[in-house]
Amino acid sequence: SVVIQECYVQNTAREYAKLYAAEAEPLEGFGEVPEIIPIFLIHRPANNIPYATVEEELVGEFVKYSVKDGKEVNFLRRDTEAGQKCCTFQHWVYEKTNGNLLVTDLQGVGMKLTDVGIATLAKGYKGFKGNCSFSFIEQFRALHQCNEYCEMLGLKSLRTTHQKQRKTMSNKSKNLPNSSTVKKMVPKKAREPRDFISSEH
């Protein structure tokens, strides 16, 4: 069901965020690290919507820190500490998984994030398939700009590798389906108030 998938995705992303924190927190000057809050599945057998998700309520200004697609560029990503650290988290996961997995839709209040997505390459990663199109990974590679936190973690810039790949891949890319057809295959559902998110299965 959609609800179970949502829990699985967020809690998988949460495990990566914990590993990121363990690596980043000891670094001098890094400071607070973004956290993905846990999401719990509850079963309500008497209810006509038997499964629901529960999570901590985030109070404050809700901000989207990551690029959803090429059209939506959020300047708060570059201008705030939380935004920069979210971009670094994406870069860190991308490098850790050799470009096979990306945590997307980083959004929340301050350093507390929720309702994230995961994009994997078409074949998935270690048996896990994300809930976002793999075109998000290509977009991230093209749009990510390293910041001081990427440098603190010693992450490799994506700029040079991307430009080299473009030359060799330009002939092949004509055969790939364009991103709009890929996106249709993996619709990201509209957000409803969380307590009432449901799936009839």
Could you give a short description of this structure?
With 201 residues, this protein is of the alpha+beta class.
Number of strands: 8
The unreliable regions are: 172-177, 179-201
State the order of secondary-structure elements, H for helix, E for strand.
HEEEEHHEEEEHHHH
What share of residues is helical? 25-40%
CATH classification, class level: Alpha Beta
Task: Report on the architecture of this protein.
Helix content is 38%, strand content 13%. By secondary structure, the protein is of the alpha+beta class. It has one domain (2-153): MHCK/EF2 kinase (Protein kinase-like fold). The strands form three sheets. Strands 1-7-6-4 form a four-stranded mixed β-sheet. The protein has a two-stranded antiparallel ribbon with strand order 2-3. Strands 5-8 form a two-stranded antiparallel ribbon. The longest helix has 23 residues, at 2-24. The radius of gyration is 17 Å and the shape is globular. Residues 172-177 and 179-201 have low confidence and may be disordered.
